[in-house]
């Protein structure tokens, strides 16, 4: 292993051009030892990085790669005697209970219950309404205008969709926007103390708000996802607890908003960069779903996920210890030439397109069908409403995030 290779996913250089860095590491050091970290208990562990498609797929399917550190280490090793600081307690407790961060059997139970409420039929029925929302958002911006596509379109569209799904009134959408952005920042690789404090406050605010909404839906069910989640039962007659509903609401909010926002903005940016491709898609709109898959592959909204090792193991002959953390760089896997021919070329008819942007295995993204649908509708409307899309501002402003491939703004010029 080449110990001279360094990797700082928190650096501005990486944020501006992650694919160049990831491509070099995938070629020279597909399994990379990262920094030593120290837990609250004083326990030290290594953070590893995987960059190849084969290694990442294997890790996503390996039951020894776990989400919950409490299933990996003993109480003594975790240092339970060290209390969680009160200013972070609500945030830590909520994250521990979210389906995204759970392992079987708890994950299996939660996912099966949510699957009964959040069905493919529900997603399909949303298509025409999503299109109406998207048209309304673009209506103030006729061809010939310049506007910030992130602020005016990519950000509000998924907020409105997920807010309506959850049953959040129109007047409260701005609350949803703020909560989603803060929690997305909490999920990053490097998180500041200020962000953690904001995240903890957000949890309190969200749970207070959502608890009232759950109470109201318990008394007066409606045709929304919260009412459905209140009704579903598992094979033993079990239901989601109120606390599980609260934590599920936060997860659905962020998963349903932040990733789709990035997908739409990244798609628009790529069309600005590739006017010939945009023209080809206007002439052949049946290729738009495939174009969305290529956007997901080349500029994934979420660039990595992580796991904890439940036992000592070796990857490509390199020894890792139980309790170590492994970062799986989905954005790197998606451009692995061992799987994707001409990986840096945008090919809307690429088949098969086995990108990992929605993960794989038991944690495959529950909201993938909705994200794909919103992305396809948004891209089609952008291409049909605007015969030409060009960047009005350079350089681009990328969010200082190692987890999300996210533009803070995208000023575009449109023309007739």
Give a verbal description of the structure.
The termini are far apart. Strands 1-2-8-5-3 form a five-stranded mixed sheet. The model has no long low-confidence stretch (mean pLDDT 91). It has one domain (12-397): Orthogonal Bundle (Cytochrome p450), CATH 1.10.630. α12 crosses α14. By secondary structure, the protein is of the alpha+beta class. The protein is built from 18 helices and twelve strands. Helix content is 50%, strand content 12%. The protein is globular, with a radius of gyration of 21 Å. A hairpin with an 8-residue loop joins β10 and β11.
Fill in the keyword field for this structure.
alpha+beta; single chain; 416 residues; 12% strand; three-stranded antiparallel β-sheet
Secondary structure blueprint with pairings:
Blueprint: H1 12-16, H2 18-28, E1 31-38, E2 44-50, H3 53-61, E3 65-66, H4 75-78, H5 89-97, H6 106-117, H7 120-125, H8 127-138, E4 146-148, H9 149-154, H10 156-166, H11 173-186, H12 193-219, H13 225-231, H14 242-273, H15 275-283, H16 288-298, E5 304-309, E6 313-315, E7 318-320, E8 325-329, H17 330-333, H18 368-385, E9 388-391, E10 397-398, E11 407-409, E12 411-415
Parallel strand pairs: 2-8
Antiparallel strand pairs: 1-2, 3-5, 4-12, 5-8, 6-7, 9-12, 10-11
Query: What proportion of the residues is helical, as a percent range?
Result: 40-55%
Low-confidence segments, ≥5 residues, pLDDT <50?
A: none
Which value, in Å, is the CA radius of gyration? 21 Å
Number of domains: 1
Assign an overall shape. globular
- What is the chain-wise order of helices and strands? HHEEHEHHHHHEHHHHHHHHEEEEHHEEEE
Write the CATH architecture name. Answer: Orthogonal Bundle
Strand tally: 12
